# Entry
Amino acid sequence: MTLSDWKDVAGNFQSAVAPPPTVLAVALCFVVLVGGVLAFRRYRARASSYAHIETSLEISFLGQQDGCWIVELKAILNNKGKVQRRIHKFRFDLNAIHADDPIEANTRGQVSFTNEIAKGSFVPKGYAYCVVGPTVTATYSYVARVPELATFLMLHCWFDYDPGFSHLMKRAVQVPKSTALVENTNAEAQFAASRIRPRASSSGAAAPADEAVLAHGWGEARELRNA
# Structure
C-alpha cells in the first residue's frame, strides 16, 4: 500500500469513530445538568448549617441584701449546626415595673417596663466576638442588682452572627416577694422561641458593658477573640 492509501484508511477510520454533532450536544447537556445538580446539593448542604442556634434566657434570684435582689442573667446558646458561629454585638437590657408604677402599654400594645435596671454585653470588654462551636451549648451570664420595690422584670437579649443574621429574644418574670418563694434554679432550662432576621447595617454600635461575668460550667466550650 502506498502512502496515499494509508492516508485514506486513516481518514475513513476517524470518520467512523467520531461521534456525530447531536451526540456531542447531548453529552454536553448531560454534563451541565449533572454539574448543576451537584452545585445545588452543595448549596443546600451549606444552607442547612445556617440558622441552627437554639436560645434560652434565664433570670435567677440568688438572694437579698442591702435592699436589693442579687440576680443572675443567663443567655444560653445551643449551636445545632455543623459549623462554628461567631457571635457579635451580644448585648442585653433589663427593665422593671415597680410596685407603685401604673401598668401602661407601648405602641405595640405590650406592657411597658419603664425602669432601666441594667444593660451591657455578654462579651467582655476588649473582645470583638465570641465563638460557639458545632453541637456546643454555651452559657453566658451577667450578675445585676434589682431594687426590692421591683415587681416584674423584662430581659431583652440580641446578637448578630454569620452569615448576616440577627437573633432577638426576651423573657419576663415576676420578682419573688421573699427568698422563701425562690424556685430551684438547677432544673434544666427550656429553650425559648425567638426571632431570626437579616442583620440591618448600622454605622455605630453601643459601647460594651464595663463588666461582664462569664459563667463556666460543664459541657461548655467557647472562644473569645480580640478585636
Notes: The first strand starts at residue 53 and ends at 65. Residues 101 and 186 are 32 Å apart (CA to CA).
